[in-house]
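During the reporting period the student researcher (J.K.) took over the structure-prediction task from the postdoctoral fellow and processed the backlog of single-chain submissions. One of the processed entries is reproduced below for the supervisory committee.
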Amino acid sequence: MLSKSAARAFFLIGTIGFSVIFLLLTLDTIRRVPEQTNAANLTPQAIAGKHLWDKSNCMGCHTILGEGAYYAPELTKVYERRGPAFIKAMLRDPEAMYPGQRRMVKYDFTDEEMEAMVAFLKWIGEMDLNGFPPEPTLLPVAVPTPAVGADVVAAVERPKVFNQLCIACHSLGGQGGIVGPALDDVGNRLSYDDLVPWLTDPQQIKPGTAMPKLPLSSADVVELASFLSQMKQQPSSTGEGSN
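J.K. obtained the following structure tokens:
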């Protein structure tokens, strides 16, 4: 059993020793901050986006860098997960992107303000956060390969624009949103020639449809139509007619 003097010495040495360790770890963390946050890439545009983020009280609904509210989606990796086109479309008119599904305020941002917000979220997403949050999982999908028979499947890489825009509302292979219909068999229902005008302007094809006119380039439309036209489910063999 320790004497009073030994216990006092143990307490003092332990307190001072662990305080020194804490200070050294703090200094090491501060030293790493510029490199891990890519401080050199913090442009005036990204800084303006940060001020807009604070002014609009985005953290009142969203979480970023582990801080904020949990009412709306976490946005630390939103630039990588959704891309600039989706972010700007949501900032421009959230209701048009998710009719009746989202309660995000329409802030009437200018184009300059939207670009600033995108720059800020891009900078946030490029930080080295030691694996937080996990990288978005956007998987390829297996589809039949007609050239070698219906029983053979090949992994088809999803277009980047599909992973950023379409999967926010639609599901494919069990992954994605539930706002719109699943797209696993969309190729059975719509051909490439049907998909091109639909993706270009859904409202013109079917006025009042819940699908918004997405910010897609002509190249995006062609790529998506080519990809989605391959999404076909083969008829299952039920063995009818056998005794």
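The committee noted the following: The chain has two domains: 40-125, 141-228.
J.K. will present the remaining backlog at the next meeting.
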